[in-house]
Amino acid sequence: MDVYHNYNLIIVTIISIIFTQVIKVLNYYIVHKKINFTRFVETGGMPSSHSSASSTLATLVALRNGVTSTSFAIILFITTFIMYEAAGVRRSAGQQAKILNDIMDDLYSHKPISDNKLKELLGHTPTEVILGSMLGIVIAFAFYR
């Protein structure tokens, strides 16, 4: 196994992340009719770059080493965990942040104590995770040699 082969896995996975984040910027533009480059580095939103990247890497490992390999079993487990966490824990944290922000707005509507709000867009819906995963698989096949 040569270093160049692993280099390709890393580069294609990074391409997957970048492509997914560009889609988030484009989605924001389509919805809000203005460009928001911070979407390129923010978490959450459509599609999930965590799911895309981990699915890209899992697919590339499967194509290179086979689905019966130990390395594929490891990356499949990690990918499943990443996708569950993105749609579960981080999404719940974002929903809690929204509720807390709403409570703060109600309590201090006449006398704000702080302009700092909690970040609400942390996780993903199951649809965002699934579409991110599908995008990752497509990218892996597109770049696999």
Search tags:
5 helices; 145 residues
- In what range is the share of β-strand residues? under 5%
Return the domain count. 1
Question: What is the general shape?
Answer: elongated
Q: What is the count of helical runs?
A: 5
Q: Percentage of helical residues? A: over 70%
State the order of secondary-structure elements, H for helix, E for strand: HHHHH
The counted number of beta strands is 0
| Radius of gyration over all CA atoms, rounded | 18 Å
End-to-end CA span = 15 Å
Mind describing the biggest β-sheet? none
Question: On the 0-100 scale, what is the average pLDDT?
Answer: 81
Q: Helix/strand/pairing class, anyone?
A: mainly alpha
Low-confidence stretches: none
Tell me about this structure:
This protein has 145 residues and is mostly helical. The protein has one domain (3-88, 123-143). Helices cover 70% and strands 0% of the residues. The chain has five helices and no strands. It has helices at 3-32, 49-65, 70-87, 89-107, 126-143. Helix 1 (3-32) runs antiparallel to helix 2, helix 1 packs across helix 5 (126-143) and helix 2 (49-65) runs antiparallel to helix 3 (70-87).
